[in-house]
Structure prediction request, 208 residues.
Amino acid sequence: MSEKELGQKWDRCLADCAVKLGTGLGLGIVFSVVFFKRRTWPIVFGTGLGLGMAYSNCQNDLRSHYVLHSKVAKEE
Amino acid sequence: AAAIVFSDGLCGWKEATSLRQHNSDTHGHSSFATKVTIAGGAIYVAYDSGLLGDGKEGSVTLGRAKAAIPPAVEEWVKYFGFELPATPKIEFSPLDAWNSGVQKSIHALSVAPSTVSDYTKQGLKYVKDLTK
Prediction:
């Protein structure tokens, strides 16, 4: 993996983290207001979910260079 | 049953009927089905616009959002009829600051041994001159 590619991957990671954090926060706020009587824990849970998704995406992206990718050959 | 549901904040399916009754009594007919629709709609919108997807999709969505903000802000300003104060142009780039900081510290670390030995030699020479 070249330096340039690594830099791009990190940039994507940061952007994705921002998006997922915002999404998790938003969905947590929606659920907290709609279902759970404006408590704090759904908001925190949603933010945590967003962070977890971002971390997992980042991990897969950074590892994808070293993981073997295969295709199933079509049977004729 | 309704009182027990709200004290610990959890909705069980058993209490759903009493919850629906309580809601339509107090919140003006916002039933459980309405809430499910609202929450499900929010999740669907998030899924459909690619917010919950891959890293590549996430950065694309961020770019689209960044591009869509100035027209939206302009529309809001026109709607409310006042001018927002002009945002000051900040000439600070965190990326450049971070990069230059990293380069300076690593350079300092790399010249540290030779610098330390130079200063030690100078210090020893100074002490030797004093004792002459």
